[in-house]
Design goal:
Radius of gyration: 31 Å
Number of strands: 30
Structural class: alpha/beta
Strand content: 15-25%
Number of helices: 26
Shape: globular
Strand order of the largest sheet: 5-4-1-6-7-8-11-10-9
């Protein structure tokens, strides 16, 4: 079943194998049981051990809610209705359990906690964990080339995995599912597949997966891949990691893979292996602070940081493992640059660095470098009553952890590469509302998912230092920070570990083991644009439009919002967090709308509330929300609904399909409109998001084909909407209801949803001499003109606001100014105009 996993050439001695035998749960045939059970396998059991002479075993146990971020309480809460959980793993303790007491310990753990321990001698544990896992796999998976492979440690790794397989087989029954966690047990799935026919095995990797160029340097690269491919469902935190894994399978094992209804998969040894991408979350309720005084000065003082909250005091906090991967040294170097570049911040900004010493991977060279940097910074910049860097190296309690979050104004994490780092989630859930600001390395797994995060290159000291200053300056924008924090907290609750675990288990339950015929699909997904040369598609020059503007009497402006007046690059997850036009653009719109000869409409896919927030002071600007489902004419205060009593019976089916893609695509979410549903993936991994978008588009078209529904692919979104509601229909209504005949029309937009406007205007007003339909960006379009970027749109509007004060002959001078900005007026390439079949390549929300 799982492929040929080559056994290590050298087997441990009989004495070592004997000492690893399990006294209670020895290998046996699988039992039959009517009760569904989930065997949760991880290297360390989520158990805290302490000595207790009152117990038969001499030990007392309790659940460890911090184990692997896999809080046992949350997991059991999530899954207790699905299955009975049995835990398998090694006891995390420095206390040696003598062979004579292992029976009693095993019985006690199983009866009190449903835990099955796997016992190993201390030297085997050290070679397995510190030697192979942390000494070889950990740095390799975090993209390090400087790893020295040792064959003897690989033998130990294989032997430990075999011992785990014996214990799991002994605990297995035909109604069981198995869920294995992390890189310590990567050959275990194949070992189980050989002995348990038809078993459903889930595996989730909590670390990154390296690029194929680095992964292939491992001498046992094939064995690890074949071990993992014994799984039924493989889970990764990010698409980058899944893509690297698939690339390794293609390059090293010549395997084929594809996506089907949003689920990646590949064919191996006559079986189908599914790939799932989903970032693990936290248990938000555990970090909910009821007592606002929690995290008081007393806790911080006991920790070693005498901190008193003050408006003019900024604490930059950080909690990192003491590991070179976490980039603490780079953080300190960037903080030194900050102190050099912004001397007025001396005495008011302190970096509090908590370093958690992990004995298995603490390198003295790394520790010495950090301590040296801390000392040099404090000596160079410290004052009598101010220490720039407070460095604390110790394990901290949950209460101390929360206290650090509560006292921190800015969380600064600069790992070089990080697969599972949920410190930002904990911080956002715990910090004082309106004070939680984050600066995260691009290598942090969750950096793309959080609206509050400022993403930085950890090796760019100037960029990191400038980001610190920007956060300090932005501290007074409490409402904006609060809106971002609320959006992130909503995301954290939506992606909590409870929902993550239920979703993973649900996918595992759906899987089976029949063979599926798959065809090869390329790793990347990009929407291709066929660009051809056509006449009549020109760059819109300012002198041309100014002359037409000055010669006309009744003018109509139809302006898209995102991507036209603003750069549509930020998340729409919260209304207050979306991009707004620059102040100059707002001023131009206000001046144009004040002219009685002008009618100005903003044509957007946003909600009424979002538009009203931006245009509160501009009553003379007409607003169109949700592509025309609602509109508010100029000089009116009431919104008008385009049509009542439309058929929305397809909503629930569409919502269910989109929600399934949200679970499989981290960073995506569903936005509900009055006449449609939008699946946003702008915050997802770009390549994976586009890949999933194509799958969702086809899926929705197949399912909703019988309804009066249109599926639109946009910039970072898939929109399922009622066919009657689009910008073209809304423009038709505006022109029909107008009390004047327009002799000048400027219509600007940037994406597929704006093509409806261009198409309608071409057919209805094609003979109008002063008709300017203009797309932003050079791409296939029904528009007659194009502008290269949002800045050019802003410039055109600005030029028109002052054109009435200039003589027509001066328009060329203004056009020349714009031409300089655009590196030369005109364009050497002929106009590009795409056919209707090419319009699917366009994108956008609004």
């Amino acid at each position: 079943g799982g492929g040929a996993l080559r056994p290590p050439p050298r087997v441990p001695s009989a004495s070592v194998v004997e000492s690893m035998s399990m006294p209670v749960f020895s290998a046996r045939k699988p039992v039959v049981s009517a009760v569904r059970s989930l065997i949760m396998v991880m290297y360390r059991l989520p158990i805290i051990v302490r000595e207790d002479v009152g117990k038969p075993s001499g030990l007392a146990f309790s659940f460890d809610d911090d184990a692997l971020y896999m809080t046992s309480t949350a997991i059991q809460t999530a899954l207790r209705q699905k299955a009975r959980i049995v835990w398998v793993g090694v006891l995390s303790t420095e206390i040696d359990v003598p062979v004579a007491r292992q029976n009693e310990v095993a019985k006690q753990l199983y009866s009190e906690f449903a835990c099955i321990p796997v016992f190993f001698p201390r030297d085997v544990i050290d070679k397995f964990y510190k030697g192979f896992c942390k000494g070889i796999l950990w740095p390799t998976f975090h993209m390090s080339y400087t790893v020295q492979f040792r064959r003897d440690l690989w033998h130990v790794y294989s032997t430990v995995n075999r011992k785990f397989s014996e214990v799991v087989v002994a605990a297995y029954n035909e109604n069981s599912m198995i869920w294995i966690h992390d890189y310590h047990l990567m050959v275990l799935p194949a070992l189980l597949r050989r002995r348990l026919a038809g078993v459903r095995i889930g595996f989730f990797l909590h670390t990154p997966w390296p690029s194929s160029e680095i992964y292939r340097t491992l001498p046992v690269r094939d064995e690890l891949l074949r071990g993992l491919l014994g799984s039924t469902l493989l889970g990764f935190n990010m698409f980058d990691y899944a893509r690297h894994f698939l690339s390794a399978c293609t390059r090293l094992l010549n395997l084929e893979h594809k996506a089907n209804n949003g689920i990646l998969g590949l064919e191996y040894a006559g079986r189908h292996v599914s790939i799932r991408v989903s970032l693990i979350g936290i248990d938000p309720e555990r970090f909910y602070i009821k007592d606002e005084s929690f995290g008081s000065r007393a806790i911080m003082k006991n920790l070693g940081f005498d901190w008193a909250p003050a408006r003019d005091t900024f604490v930059i906090g950080a909690i990192d493992d003491l590991d070179f991967i976490k980039g603490i040294s780079y953080k300190l170097l960037a903080f030194r640059v900050f102190l050099e570049k912004y001397p007025h911040r001396h005495g008011f900004v302190t970096l509090l660095q908590i370093a958690l010493p992990k004995t298995s991977r603490v390198q003295e060279a790394v520790r010495s470098e950090i301590l040296g940097l801390v000392k040099s910074i404090n000596e160079a910049f410290g004052q009598k009553d101010w220490q720039p860097v407070v460095y604390i190296e110790k394990d901290i309690t949950f209460e101390e952890r929360v206290a650090v979050y509560r006292s921190t104004s800015i969380l600064l994490l600069t790992p070089l590469r990080d697969g599972l780092n949920l410190v930002p989630y904990e911080y956002l859930q715990t910090a004082v509302p309106g004070r939680a600001q984050l600066i995260l390395s691009e290598g942090t797994g969750c950096s793309r998912s959080l609206s509050s995060a400022v993403s930085v290159n950890p090796l760019d000291e100037v960029q990191v230092s400038d980001a610190i200053e920007a956060c300090i300056v932005g501290y007074d924008k409490r409402q904006e920070v609060t809106r971002k924090n609320k959006a992130d907290q909503k995301y954290i609750h939506t992606h909590a570990i409870v929902k993550w675990s239920r979703s993973f288990l649900a996918d595992l339950e759906k899987e089976n083991e029949p063979t599926q015929n798959l065809t090869k699909l390329g790793l990347g997904y990009g929407v291709g644009m066929m660009l051809s040369n056509y006449e009549g598609f020109d760059h819109l020059e300012s002198d041309t439009i100014v002359q037409a503007y000055m010669a006309s009497k009744e003018r109509l402006f139809l302006l898209d919002y995102d991507g036209t007046l603003t750069k549509s690059s930020c998340s729409t997850r919260s209304t207050g967090n979306w991009e707004k036009p620059k102040e100059g653009t707002f001023k131009s719109l206000e001046i144009l709308s004040e002219n009685p000869s002008n009618t100005v409409y903003i044509m957007s896919g946003r909600t009424r509330e979002a538009l009203e927030t931006s245009f509160t002071t501009m009553s003379k600007v007409g607003l169109v929300a949700e592509h025309g489902f609602y509109y508010r004419p100029p000089n009116k205060t009431e919104w008008i609904e385009f049509e009542h009593d439309i058929d929305l019976t397809w909503f629930e089916v569409c919502r269910e399909i989109m929600s399934a893609y949200v679970e499989r695509t981290d960073g995506s979410y569903v936005e509900e409109k009055s006449a449609g549903l939008i699946w946003h993936f702008l915050d997802a991994d770009p390549e994976f998001g586009r890949w999933q978008a194509r799958e969702l588009h086809d899926h929705l078209e197949n399912v909703l084909g019988a309804f009066n529904v249109e599926i639109v692919s946009g910039q970072g979104l898939i929109w399922a909407r009622h066919k009657h509601f689009n910008k073209g229909e809304m423009v038709k209504r505006i022109i029909t209801e107008a009390q004047r005949e327009h002799d000048f029309v400027l219509c600007c937009g940037d994406d597929r949803t704006d093509e409806d406007m261009f198409s309608y205007l071409a057919s209805a007003l094609g003979s109008l001499q002063n008709l300017f339909t203009c797309t932003v960006g050079m791409k296939p379009s029904y528009a007659k003109f194009y502008l290269r970027a949002v800045d050019e749109v802003s410039h055109i509007l600005s030029v028109l606001t002052i054109s009435g004060k200039k003589r027509p002959g001066m328009a060329g001078g203004m056009g020349g100014g714009m031409g300089g900005m655009m590196a030369g007026r005109g364009t050497s390439m002929s106009a590009m105009k795409g056919s209707q079949s090419n319009l699917a390549a366009l994108g956008g929300d609004d």
